[in-house]
Amino acid sequence: MSAVGTLALLQARRDRWELAVWIGGIAGLGFAAATAISTQFGADNERAALITVAAASPAFLFLRGLPDGISTGAVTFFSGLFLYGGPRGADEHVPGHPPHPR
Question: Residue 18: CB partners within 8 Å, gap ≥ 6?
Answer without folding.
Answer: 99
